[in-house]
Design a protein that fits this description.
The protein is mainly alpha-helical and 149 residues long. It has one domain: Cytochrome c-like domain (Cytochrome Bc1 Complex, Chain D, domain 2, Orthogonal Bundle), CATH 1.10.760.10. Helix content is 31%, strand content 7%. The chain has five helices and four strands. The protein has a two-stranded antiparallel ribbon with strand order 1-2. The protein has a two-stranded antiparallel ribbon with strand order 3-4. A hairpin with a 5-residue loop joins β3 and β4.
């Protein structure tokens, strides 16, 4: 849970706030959310990996959106962050297993997360850095290589 909390604080609190209550009319609360606590975590995994956008309406012509984090967070980091979210602020749900994230990433073609300096603040990320520094490889949602180093 500590690893998931660290990721949540770094990546999610700007919008969803540290209490998981979000910002009314802008960012939805995670506390008490039925999708967050669903028995099947597929939807929430997909939202974190691919992002989400609300549809424009007459009352709100500019849609709100959540960016994709599949390019930035690896499978274990996504599982850890979602396990934290699903079990904080009174939420109660099963842990998200890394294997569920791996499976969905493969099926959706979201691509791979960076194993670079972007991931270093999170636990276990330093293991991916070689003696010559981090290797940066970015892939788009269709798993096409965009850059490498």
């Amino acid at each position: 849970m500590r690893a998931g909390e660290a990721i949540f604080v770094d990546v999610c609190t700007a919008c969803h706030r540290s209490e998981g209550k979000g910002v009314p009319r802008f960012f939805p609360p995670l506390q008490g959310d039925s999708t967050v606590q669903s028995r099947d975590p597929t939807t929430i995994i997909r939202i974190v990996m691919e992002g989400s956008q609300s549809p424009p309406t007459d009352g709100r012509p500019t849609p709100l959106s959540m960016p994709a984090f599949g390019w930035k967070l690896n499978d274990q980091q996504i599982a850890d962050a979602l396990t934290y979210i699903r079990n904080s602020w009174g939420n109660r749900a099963a842990a998200v297993e890394k294997s569920a994230v791996v499976k969905l990433r493969r099926e959706s073609g979201t691509g791979t997360a960076l194993t670079s300096a972007l991931a270093l603040p999170f636990p276990d990320a330093a293991d991916s850095v070689g003696s010559n520094g981090p290797t940066v490889m970015t892939r788009n949602r269709h798993n096409q290589r965009l850059s490498g180093g």
